[in-house]
Specification:
Elements: H1 6-15, H2 39-54, H3 59-69, H4 86-99, H5 104-108, H6 117-129, H7 132-176, H8 178-188, H9 195-209, H10 211-233, H11 236-242, H12 248-269, H13 274-281, H14 288-302, H15 307-312, H16 315-318, H17 320-332, H18 336-390
Helix pairs in contact: 2-3, 2-7, 3-4, 6-7, 7-9, 7-18, 8-18, 9-10, 9-18, 12-13, 12-18, 13-14
Length: 391
């Protein structure tokens, strides 16, 4: 089935009572729309649009200022390695489209790498309500969260990566240098190397005999680890299993629930109806069990059930506390401000969950690195002790 947009196609399928968890967007995208945009660059871009909108500038003028102020180079980890920032040209093209009379939502739909489904829904709601500054603020907050999670993961992984890199160099130097010589000396005295030294020597001989294979293996391992999250996202069969893994599954669910409440609060603030909210909320996560739960809730709301009641049967994904909070807010007729305060509570829960996961991960990393360093130290000092005993 074809449609003018993935969103329209999903609506059509849902209206036909189909259980849809995702719709592939096979549009032919512009080259700029295929480029990756870093979360920090997105934050700065939407921050500029938010500031311009708060000052009363129309979308075209706000986009022009964003184009002028956007950096030519993206924010890189190393100051001397900074690739071109695609946002500069994207903002320029959006400015031209807005000048030609296109609506912001229509112009933004050409760049899904900048305006995802949630952002498009917020833009559409903001255009109808005349509150684009709130729209840009909401998109900025979502991009800021992505940047914070990315920074947290990088900060956790830098230390073990550095230690493992240094350990690899030390192992190679020991295996091709002093350890074989010590082995010959011990052999002369009728002694032998400890197993740690033998292991390192065998490893070094393999590396020395197959240096290209070793480099390819390390590069493949690094590439696999960096691409593993994307592989999991693109493999729906793994999603249910990911949710069952201790710590990782719990952290994933807490993140989904926090994103759900925060995005729901933003959409309700933009006066988006419940059906459209659920349609947009389905796209905030890669997790297919979550998407399926939201699809079922969409059908219940379409049949006339209140939002909290419709979501109650998806307690395994959304959590009992989330459901109870939504039920109380709905029964008491609380305003959006209460929903925003609930979002703050959920974000605090997410921060606590990340902190707990970090507290568990760091000791495990330290134990692994300590064991590795212990093997290296034993490989170095073991032959010396054995040589001393033989003298």
């Amino acid at each position: 089935m074809a449609s003018t947009s993935a969103m329209d196609l999903m609506v059509s399928l849902l209206e036909r009572k189909q259980a849809v968890v995702d719709v592939l967007d096979n549009r032919i995208l512009l080259p700029l729309a295929k480029k990756r945009i870093k979360p920090l660059d997105k934050v700065l871009f939407f921050e500029q649009l938010e500031s311009s909108s708060l000052l009363g500038f129309d979308p075209a003028r706000a986009m022009e200022i964003a184009h002028i102020t956007a950096s030519e180079k993206t924010a890189g980890f190393l100051p001397w390695i900074r690739p071109d920032n695609p946002l500069k040209r994207i903002a320029g093209d959006l400015f031209k489209k807005l000048q030609q009379g296109q609506a912001l939502g229509e112009a933004a739909s050409h760049y899904p790498n900048l305006f995802d489904k949630i952002a498009m829904g917020l833009v559409e709601a903001g255009e109808h309500s005349g509150s684009l500054s709130d729209t840009f603020a909401s998109i900025r907050q979502l991009a800021t969260r992505d940047e914070k999670v990315r920074d947290k993961l990088i900060s956790i992984s830098i230390y073990p990566v550095l230690v493992l890199g240094i350990a690899a160099v030390i192992v190679y130097q020991l295996a091709t240098g002093p350890l074989p010589q010590l082995g010959k000396v011990l052999e002369y005295f009728k002694g032998e190397l400890p197993w740690q030294s033998k292991l390192i020597i065998e490893t070094g001989q393999f590396i020395g005999g197959n240096p290209l294979l070793y480099v390819i293996g390390i590069a493949t391992l690094i590439f696999f680890l960096t691409r593993l999250p994307a592989l999991i996202r693109r493999t729906p069969a793994l999603h249910q299993w990911i949710l069952k893994i201790p710590f990782i599954g719990d952290l994933t669910l807490v993140s989904i629930r926090a994103n759900f409440i925060q995005t729901l609060a933003m959409l309700k603030k933009a006066k988006v109806d419940s059906l459209k909210c659920l349609l947009l909320l389905q796209g905030i996560s890669w997790c297919y069990p979550y998407r399926g739960a939201i699809t079922l809730a969409y059908h219940r709301v379409a049949n006339g059930e209140p939002l909290a009641v419709a979501l109650a049967e998806e307690v395994e994904i959304l959590g009992q506390r989330t459901i109870e909070y939504l039920r109380v807010l709905e029964e008491t007729g609380a305003d959006v401000a209460m929903l925003e305060r609930l979002a703050l509570v959920m974000n605090r829960d997410l921060d606590s969950a990340v902190g707990r996961a970090e507290a568990v991960a760091k000791p495990l990393i330290i134990l692994f690195l300590a064991a590795l360093i212990g093997v290296i130290a034993s490989a170095v000092y073991g032959p010396l002790i054995e040589l001393y005993n033989q003298l």
